[in-house]
Design goal:
Elements lengths: L7 E5 L4 H12 L3 E6 L13 E4 L5 H10 L4 E4 L6 H6 L1 H20 L7 E5 L24 H20 L3 E6 L1 E3 L9 H10 L5 E2 L6 E2 L1 E3 H13 L10 E4 L5 E2 H11 L8 E2 L15 H7 L7 H15 L2
Parallel strand pairs: 1-2, 1-4, 2-3, 4-5, 5-6, 6-11, 7-10, 8-13
Antiparallel strand pairs: 9-12
Length: about 325
């Protein structure tokens, strides 16, 4: 029997990229999935089989009600304002969603200890901020400076505070840059590049193309989240943060070149705007801790993952 059979799972951020794939995986393994839904997103790939609770992370009473009424056993907190440009334009709404939303959720879980047995909270590699020593390991200081990065540093520390003070059964994920079918934020590199190519247009690179990142396939991330949750609560797992990624850092231009190669459109030359701001030049992860404590490692190759992603957008965009 699946670990998830008949478990009541609460999922935030379910209309987004990772959340929609998480919902599918949990449903496939027999879980009862309850999703917090702020906006109706017609194009989201979120399954109609989930139970939808309408409300916002900023409303703690909605969270308390959902956890109680649906007798939630497991929480995946993925919901956040994730767009760097949006956070720069509107830091307050980003802080409200990412910081207040996180402590509201942790508090709703804390006051229901007989129900909630495990909580996985999505932080980000951006929580580390800029460091000279790379790749990041989990003991690197959390020193975000820009609004989005700061919001993730804070959310991360809030989880550690709740664990240390109240014994809240929480663990934290710090992932690289996610990509995959269902990401409708076309200002992001992978979906934006694929859409440009499908339109027979040159892909646009906002930065100088030299920024280094970990690019992490969404189905790989789902496996990482499930593996972590299945080990909770546990010694060396609860109250800990885990890096998840491929450990294969790529520049922006390298990733675009991979997309163009898979799509057989190397004739399209990227337009490099060199206009990016509030971005950290080099970020990539060391995942030794996840390999040793969780026996997890990345399972998907870049080009085959991109091919699957491209086919999703080819179908979606017609």
């Amino acid at each position: 029997m699946s670990f998830w059979q008949d478990r009541n799972v609460f999922l935030t951020g379910a209309t987004g990229l990772l959340g929609s794939w998480m919902a599918d995986a949990l449903l496939d393994q027999g879980a009862h999935v309850v999703c917090l839904t702020r906006d109706w997103v017609p194009a989201s790939r979120l399954s109609a089989k989930v139970t939808s609770v309408r409300g916002e992370l900023e409303d703690v009473q909605v969270l308390i009600r959902a956890i109680n009424e649906y007798e939630i056993n497991t929480v995946f907190h993925i919901g956040a304002q994730t767009i760097v440009g949006t956070s720069a334009r509107s830091p307050l709404s980003t802080f409200e969603a990412n910081i207040r939303g996180t402590y509201n959720l942790l508090e709703a879980c804390r006051i229901n200890p007989k129900l909630v047995e495990r909580i996985v909270v999505a932080s980000s590699d951006k929580a580390y901020g800029a460091h000279d020593k790379l790749p990041y390991t989990e003991d690197a200081p959390l020193q975000g400076r820009f609004p989005y990065d700061v919001s993730k540093s804070c959310a991360d520390l809030l989880c550690l505070s709740y664990f240390t003070t109240y014994g809240t059964p929480v663990s934290i994920t710090r992932c690289g840059n996610l990509y995959g079918g269902g990401d409708l934020n076309f200002n992001r590199l992978v979906p934006g590049t694929i859409r440009s190519v499908l339109r027979n247009e040159a892909p646009v690179i906002r930065s100088d193309g030299k920024f280094i990142r970990d690019y992490f396939f969404v189905r790989d991330a789902v496996g990482a989240y499930l593996r972590l949750a299945e080990r909770l609560p546990g010694s060396g797992i609860t109250g800990e943060a885990f890096n998840f990624g491929t450990e294969v850092p790529l520049s922006v231009t390298d990733l675009v070149a991979h997309v163009l190669s898979v799509m057989k459109r190397e004739d399209l030359k990227p337009l490099i705007l060199n206009q990016a701001s509030q971005e950290i030049p080099r970020q990539y992860l060391d995942c030794t801790k996840a390999r040793t404590r969780l026996q997890w490692s990345s399972a998907y190759a870049l080009d085959s993952s991109l091919a699957e992603t491209i086919e999703w957008y080819r179908s979606y965009l017609g």
